[in-house]
Amino acid sequence: MNRAHILVIDDEKSLREFLTILLEQEGYEVTTADTVASGIERIAGKTFDLVMCDLKLPDGSGLEVLGEARKRQVESPFIIITAHTTPQHALEALRAGAAEYLSKPFNVEDLKLILTKLVGEDAEPEEMPDVPNFIGSSPAIRRILDMVPRLAATPSTVFITGESGTGKELLAQAIHAFSANANGPFLSVNCGALPEGLLESELFGHVRGAFTGAVRDNRGLFVDAEGGTLLLDEVGELTLPMQVKLLRVLQERRVRPVGASREIEVNTRVLAATNRDLDQAVKNGEFREDLYYRLNVLHLHLPPLRQRVEDLPELARHFVEQTCKNFALPVKRLTPDALRVLQAYSWPGNVRELENVIERTVALEGTEMISPGSLPVHLRGDSAVSPIEHTGLPEEGLDIDEYLDNMRRSLMRQALERTGGHQKKASELLRMSYRGFRYHAEKLGLTHDEKE
Question: Is 307-443 in the same CATH topology as 127-301?
């Protein structure tokens, strides 16, 4: 298998040497250049899988290299790197067609994640099945996704466990998509969301007149999912009487609708999911042991997001793109600093919480860049909005205008949230003039769908 070939363009010899050692250790082939002219010369003579280019070079801008590459129909992704980070520089680079923007000194792990995203597809393509709608390439997720086709090929029940919001239903859909039942329906029911009487009717059906309000026959989900797959989500919430009825259906492959005298044969693949510890529930007498072993024939456990943070950048970018598309907004990008904030958070609500945070952030951010200041305060912690004297000046320095803009944006957004989007009330909270507040709101992209 050919190694991915990366071109590094930077006038700092020490950085070129460092990147060469790092990239070669990661299995990449590396070529270097130190000027705009030499960079363009390298691109003209060879095809590269990726280009890392400094923004400021002795004879011009790295964007000149990017522009020349595009003129020559070279589609290699570019990572622009610079020690002089400003939102304007980032926007300029991304608008010119750069895939990513990194500020010096950059985090090595961040770079590795970006490289995996941009050129890592060649690493182990045969080991990663194309599981629909399921995003992740961490070792834990790889192991699970590798098992999906094998589990799907059997008719046995698959028991999916994991915390709320980890993607258990998406995994069930993937198993269905790989199974012999893929052309049949995929149906799901939350066993904890319905009272016992209604759940029985929902699962097994009922005949007209079986109870008050039963004005017509209902086939039930087991019959509706015939030839397909039925996911019993949150199966750990079933009452003991319902557990007995479900066990009988799984053993005999027959259902009796409520009020009916005859049973109906069913040929439905059953999957089950729960966020509860059913081993402990069995010991406590809250869940039938025989049903537990009937469900737990094949077992998959989805780890929480905090245990697979290497998947977070890919997930976050996916949700940003998805939200922008759904809201018909221009494409926005997450800065590396914003990704670091996201990866430092514990995500008790897992992937579902991440999706909700990204949707909210994209909707409120008026610029093309999602920076740490764009994110909810509880993700950033106190240090993200503390005065600089509390955190100290970083050794590498900082762009004070960007720092102050991020702080101003964060406080103005909080004031708008507290006042329900009323700019005048928000300006009073911040002891700002109304005219001054409106000026900065427009400058910082905080005017979208907000009341005056």
Answer: no
